Amino acid sequence: MPKADGPIESGWYSGLASLGSNLLAIPAALTAGPAAGLGMLTVPVGGQAYGQARDKGVAPLPAAVFGTSQAAIEYATEKIPMSRLLGDLAAKTGAAKMLTRQLAAEIPGEQVATLLQDANEWAVLNPDKTAREFLAERPDAALQTLIATVVGTGGMVAVTSAADKVMQRAARQDDAAQRAEGAATAMQQVQQVAEASKLLQRD
Q: I need a labelling partner for 136 at 20 to 30 A (CA). Which of 75, 92, 97, 199 fits?
């Protein structure tokens, strides 16, 4: 990720990174179920957290516990938005309504995730940080998370809605082709019956 200058730019880059992860997870969720999609979102979080802990000199077992807890937070806060998105896609919900519903689920969930994961990171990776320092970071962290959520969610809804329209159009074209083929077959059968009838009259 490029080096960001301030929480706004950082939130933008974070939102784009989140969009990439979500676009990989959605097909898995649609084909293999929500658990598969959530797994693709949470496993990388746990792996990255484990690597951070090891880089800080944390022993393998505590680092694994830290990574698992970070992944668990991600799973818990992504479960409702994922279920809502899949439900909206199944119900053919419009893009504007889908965006509103996704933001209503994502914004509070992501804020909770940021607070809990930052607190977890503070306790495990930066125990020397004071409570005053941790609290001083909250406004920038909340702003960054808000921007990242809007960017990531907006991009995801735009891409999934566009993809859904393309799939619907392809399905309609397939239906039209099947109807045309059926009509052609029926016309051939009618023609054969007509020819047989003429032959019978001549006989």
A: 75
Amino acid 74 reads E
For the segment 110-140, what is each residue's pLDDT rounded down to a tens digit? 999 999 999 999 999 999 999 999 999 999 9
Phi-psi group of 92: left, alpha or beta (phi > 0 → left; psi -120 to 50 → alpha; rest → beta): left
What is the rounded CA–CA span in Å between residue 100 and residue 149? Answer: 12
Residue 109 above 80 pLDDT? Answer: yes
- Other CB atoms within a 10 A radius of the CB of residue 119 amount to 12
DSSP percent split of the chain into helix, strand, coil, nearest 5: 90, 0, 10
This prediction has a pTM of 0.76
**Cα 88–177–93 angle (5° rounding)?**
10
